[in-house]
Write a structure and sequence with these properties.
Rossmann fold; five-stranded parallel beta sheet; two-stranded antiparallel sheet; 11 helices; 7 strands; globular
Length: about 270
């Protein structure tokens, strides 16, 4: 499966899952679908064939509220059956409404923002100390960079030259009920990260070729890398794009049908 097809399937599954569970955060899942599509479609970028393989790459979703996109990506990789995936949000299901490590392929439970990067720094350092060669990727939101724990981790990663660590920042400039700029502006984000010793790539977060090239280049650097992915929240469904209400809203039957038609998924 190529990355375009993978991203489309991630979007379709995410919409169906959120609708079935009457859950929320669909717009957050749609904005990272292209990134995840590129990752799961390219084993040379992300070696994630088996969760039991000690040499697998690690993929952590720090913005755990967008878990339906990660669950859908892991389903595409064959980690579980579709019938299991569609227990999402049900009582006693391991497929919880925030990323859960009980789900095969999920490295770390996330939901409280600002936790995955510090944990990933520990993983990347352990990898180096053991002389191993796997890579750790962290998918983050822009708003969670307002958390101090992330900046401590960013300092740590540079101190120990964790060039086996790449963070992918979903920069859609929206959080909860307003914009990132209106809450606490991160700008100039690229310059800040560079001043902390990181290699930074700024790119269109929906351009698969650009994402692929930046991820590939990030794996050959001598310092930790950050991809600032300029994205549109709700990307792929016109009436959800850049609409703050879709952070918490669940699509109705009619809205699901319209969204799937736009994705040509019916």
């Amino acid at each position: 499966m190529n990355s375009i097809a993978a991203a489309k399937q991630i979007r379709e599954l995410s919409l169906r899952l959120v609708h079935k569970a009457r859950a929320s955060h669909i717009a957050s899942a749609l904005s990272i679908s292209d990134l995840l599509g590129v990752l799961v479609a390219n084993p040379k970028l992300l070696n994630l064939q088996s969760i039991s393989d000690p040499n697998r790459d690690r993929l952590l979703l720090s913005k755990g509220h967008a878990c339906v996109a990660l669950y859908s990506a892991l389903y595409i990789k064959g980690f579980f059956e579709k019938s299991d995936l569609f227990t999402y949000g049900e009582d006693f299901s391991i497929f919880m409404n925030h990323a859960s490590h009980y789900v095969p392929g999920v490295e770390f439970s996330t939901g409280a923002l600002g936790h995955a990067l510090p944990v990933s720094c520990g993983k990347a350092l352990a990898c180096k100390l053991k002389g191993e060669t796997w890579h750790t990727f962290v998918v983050m939101s822009d708003g969670e960079l307002q958390e101090g724990s992330n900046w401590e981790a960013i300092l740590f990663a540079n101190q120990f030259r964790l060039n086996n660590l790449t963070i992918c920042i979903d920069y859609n400039n929206m959080q909860s009920l307003t914009s990132v700029d209106n809450t606490i502006s991160l700008q100039p984000l690229a310059a800040k990260l560079e001043s902390f010793g990181w290699k930074v790539f700024e790119l269109d977060g929906h351009n698969h070729d650009d994402i692929h090239c930046a991820l590939l280049e990030s794996k050959s650097q001598i310092v930790p890398c950050a991809l600032i992915l300029k994205t549109i929240k709700g990307k792929g469904v016109s009436f959800m794009e850049s609409s703050i209400g879709w952070h918490y809203k669940s699509p109705s039957d009619f809205e699901l049908e319209m969204a799937l038609k736009e994705l040509n998924a019916l």
